[in-house]
């Protein structure tokens, strides 16, 4: 009654729903209520299985609890009752207050289990729910394995160490990082033991299967068959090894996670709960349950309760866990103190019995982390970086952050190097040359026996994309040895000394993996002639080169390390690199010949779906692609397949290839570039001029196609097909070629009032051709047979002013002659130019058959290959524009 009279000032502010239960809880203990709680106790005990007399007998506990309860009641002049409505969550799930002692309940749950590390009933249930949770969304096999593991845990208990952790946690010991680490260790051990058990179980199965099969075998042998199968025992009879279970990071994390979940399920993770001041006051403070208050960081108050009394009053409350506490937040310490004073005064608590209040400042984890983070980063980042640097190379760390490690990629001959000589088409001489390395790597004894020195290495030189890397890979593939591939530029770094260090590392690794091949691509990045830089050379690059020279010298004859290097610029390489004893062999790989291209097409066409006559098709494609490298051809074939896929074709046909070739040569069709009618007419007459020259000059290259569809940078083009098997150009061929190149401008002059800028690229070509004739080919009587080096970087020209003047005059004379030759022809064929131009304007693209129809047969024969594939006997006409695909494009002069 006293409590009602001295209710707190805040009480009227509570809502009716929360006020009523509060009022009820302040009623004096009703005997009927007390009886109810006395009845529930035996009800709960009927499930207990502890024998009478057992120290854990709930009766004993109940007695103790009753005496505690009595004490508490006497002290608080209060009674346990139903929790206040609205505050049920403070007590537990059901909110029903029971006088059953929690310790008695504990005992009843543990009662049927032996002492030691067995799980309590609660824990078992927690494990069951955890297992069913884990099994969700997990592959059946893993889920079963986890279930089996937990069955074992339930049957055999948990390790004492884990029990210790759980008990410590229950008794209020905080959960710190050390505990977590211990927990993970225990979990890992459990996982291992579980895996061992699983392994043994499987072994038993295998054995029983084997004995069953041996019985069957015996039966079979008794029937006359003397098969040897029965003698074969189980092959997995070797003992369990830790490696047999895959304790990879994933397993480890999974185990840690599951254990942590188990832990959190058994020991509820929330060890604190926020309450309001009102809840604090009515539920704990007014009932005298508060032992101490601690103000933390001037903003939060931790409520320490008289635990036994609280448990007595609210048996389902989480406060029974020793480390659990309630807390509430405060606006200011002063306001809190005032409120607390007032509340204590209201209850008439004398000064001497007032609740002690402590003050403390705690640093939060976050704040601690933020304080230490910079230091952590400072110390751990270099470590991580050094690990990463080390990992990128070939294992192990070297120097600061592993920066001095070689970046060479190692290809294993079993798994990675699948390229063989059959994949490298053409270049038979290069293959024959390099075969020697293969046989050396396969049978070194054959060489050393005869006292022959093993070749150290070979430089593969040639234009880009001609298959140098491919050949080196094929060498590794054929010899079946590891292959270290690195690019010259990967040795170059901004730090001094890194290049040589990487070279050392590369060769050291190679020596560990003998026999092997090192391939240094683009070796000119580090192998340029020394002392040629603007300021006397690049010392870091030269140091790297010196290191390569030293390492190659350092091989002894028994070390089977072959060094291959690729470059597009063999002329700039240092002589020391090229001398015998280092790169012994110089293998030049040129752009493929007609036959080479055909072979390369065959290799790549084999990988796509087509039912064309491969022999004819590859020949025609090879004729269409003079000057193409292997890489260009591979690209063309791929482009053809893409074009076929774009048009939903079921297989790749000739027209796809031809449009792909045009695309590779001239770039994409420029649909957005729309010419006005006058421009279009100019382009048509310009291209018609080229076409007429190509048709009527005896030494001009055969004409394949004329087009006025813009593509790439060109507004139109006339596609000639030079004979790729011709390695020499005669004076007549050069002059005809120049005259044909000027055909566009001359045609413009003859058919329009003015000329355009469209012929500028033609003039560039003609001038370069004429200059080369004068300064390099000895085709000018005035200059004579002198070769003048052309080097833009040289400030002084290697000839006198007078010679310079003479060269200019001679160049002009040759260009003028070509112009006159062209103008004479086009004046004569003015009508034909008009015919071709008008047809071009209407059709936009003219192929060879169209030109034959307009101009009649070409008066001069075409070269053999051209005649075979593009006209003449047995040949097909020039390619038509495939439906839906942009028409062809050319290497020829821009308009
Ligand atoms: N002879 C060939 N036979 C088959 N395919 C080839 C041939 N030559 C080149 N190729 C194709 O071209 C691609 C590029 O070749 P590779 O990388 O060997 O050229 P590279 O000469 O090393 O070029 P770079 O000088 O630019 O390094 C190869 O992957 C291959 O598909």
For this entry, give a set of tags.
Rossmann fold, 33 helices, binds adenosine-5'-triphosphate, 7% strand, disordered N terminus, 5 domains, disordered C terminus, 895 residues, 14 strands, 6-stranded mixed β-sheet, name from scop, alpha/beta, 5-stranded mixed β-sheet
Give an account of the 3D structure.
- By secondary structure, the protein is an alpha/beta fold.
- It folds into 5 domains: 2-113 and 270-360, name from scop (3-Layer(aba) Sandwich); 121-205 and 237-266, no CATH class; 393-588, Rossmann fold (3-Layer(aba) Sandwich), CATH 3.40.50.300; 594-665, Helicase, Ruva Protein, domain 3; 667-869, Up-down Bundle (Methane Monooxygenase Hydroxylase, Chain G, domain 1).
- It is 51% helix and 7% strand.
- The chain has 33 helices and 14 strands.
- The strands form 3 sheets. It has a 6-stranded mixed beta sheet with strand order 6-8-9-10-7-11. It has a 5-stranded mixed beta sheet with strand order 1-4-3-2-5. Strands 13-12-14 form a 3-stranded antiparallel beta sheet.
- A hairpin with a 3-residue loop joins strand 2 (290-296) and strand 3.
- Helix 27 (731-741) packs antiparallel against helix 29.
- The protein is elongated, with a radius of gyration of 47 Å.
- The N and C termini lie far apart (111 Å).
- Bound molecules: adenosine-5'-triphosphate (ATP).
- Adenosine-5'-triphosphate (ATP) is lined by residues 424-427, 464-470, 521, 566, 568, 600, 603, 630-631, 634.
